[in-house]
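Dear support,

I submitted the protein below through the web form. The confirmation email said the job was done, but the results page showed an empty box. After a refresh the structure appeared. I'm attaching both so you can tell me whether what I see now is the final result or a partial one.
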Amino acid sequence: MIMCLSVPRSDRRHSAIERRHARGLRVLRGLGLLCGLLVLGACDAAQPGASGSPTAAAAATAQPEESRMWMTVGDRRFAITLADTEAARAFFAMLPLSIDMADLNSNEKHADLPKSLPTNASRPGTIRNGDLMLYGSRTLVVFYLTFDSSYSYTRLGRVDDPAGLAQALGRGGVRIAFSKN
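What the results page shows now:
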């Protein structure tokens, strides 16, 4: 005697649908978990002082000597924190350097350097008061106003406290001394 057990067609369809539904829920849960971890990681990284990283104030006082330089305009001295780039390290190696810088567009001072530096240009979008940039491979630029730009620059560093920078640079050309200390 042979017994034949058969599951009605509608029951087979329901169990296949239920399996697909359960698998879809597992995939969605996994994606939700992954997205949640990414969001939490991004939030943690964006928090000042998160993950043991120093706050801006602590970073300013604990700067390694190689990441800090000085810019002197007349009797005003401005601290500059160098970017972590090959170009910034090459610029630092050129110091001390005194250079006559011409004004352009009443928002920047610029001058050609004695030699070319390595470049890694990008479009910053917004230029900020105090940005120290390289245009091309030889043109040093100190910005003293904030504005939007579509030009590409290689970041060298930034004046730590640009208050009074525009007044110190004044109108027209100016001689600026860059030094390691």
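Response: this is the final, complete result; the empty box was a page-load delay. The longest helix spans residues 9-46.
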